[in-house]
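Reading a protein record of the kind used here takes little practice once its layout is understood. An example of such a record is reproduced below.
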Amino acid sequence: MRKGLLAVTAVVLVGGGYVAAQVYSSERFDDELTRGLKSLEESDDVTIERQNIKQGWFTSSGEIVITPKLDEGWNLSLPYSARHGLSSTRLSGELELAMSDQALFADKLEAAPPRWHAEIETLSGNFTGRLDLAAIDSQVTDSRLISEGGFLTLEGQPDDVRLAGEISPWELRGEEGDLKVGRLTLSSRYQQDETGQERDQQASFALDSLMMARDYNPTVELADLSYQGDLSLGAEELQLDGTLKLGEARVDDEPLLSGELAFSLSHINAEAVRTLEAAIDDETARGTPIEELSDAEFSALLERLEPQLLALFVDSPTLTLDHLAVQSDMLSMDTELSGELTFDGEGAENLSLEDLGQTKQRLRWVRRLNGQFDWQGVPPMAVMQLGLPMTTERLNILIENGRPTVNGRPLPPLL
């Protein structure tokens, strides 16, 4: 009898512990999903809602709906079903994109909707996910869209998210010409502190090729196009660093040029950025899209936001051009430009965004520009337009209070 009682007690304890763990796993999933969606909503210009929620101990279901805060005529829906385990929850579903009240993968394209699956760890909150894009061969109005599909992966935690993916080559064949896009690879990482006040986003993409052919027009091709950037909002400043590269541009299969651009934008007051974001959120909450505002309403909006916009300049923003390099055998060009341009932000609160169409008002802004650039390998055409000796190979460009000089010779004002 005692042995039977002990066995029953053990079963009750184990079973109760299992059920309690399942309940905890289910509730933890719900809490982490709510927190993660709220974090994403705070960092983007979108509204994220959960609808049709059915929460259970072992299974759950619902729908995540993403819509732009400004009415741009689209919304993204992710219906999901979830299975709760002791250590993790697994989710799966489809992606539904609606544009102008039509479902993209049902009404506009003859293609299967993208499928996705994800897993969230119960204790750590770590997550992984993958979205698979099906191949497409569909008629779109007078054109034919052909795609080999692709995938996207997502992993990390709500405050540290990494995205990676690959879109296979696709093409759009039309009556007047064709557009062919090669393999696209991309990656991104988004990090923020616990308050969401400080953020960093690293992003990159690489496109193998792009070709546009139109009847009676030259065929234009780009090869090895890539970008890598880092946008950081810290305690003191917002800073952007970027590098854009083009392996080669061709026209009718003849090499045209290649080049690289590396730049940075710094000294943008961080607190002003956060204040402006909050002000824009308040304006957006009123529900009228910016593109639907009348001229008078848009002017009134700028007037309301003017103090926050002007505050961005108080730390004297600086644009640094690490280098702009362009090479072209066809154009006999091998040139490189570098330098920096600073906007003097002292007393920026006394400026105004009104009447910028008037020369006098624009001059108040332009006269705050100061900088210096070094241009090596100057193309002969530029030398000729500047009225300099054709033997000139290097230019020293100086900008003081909006007034430029080249190799010591004054040029007309910037405006």
Remarks:
- The chain has six helices and 25 strands.
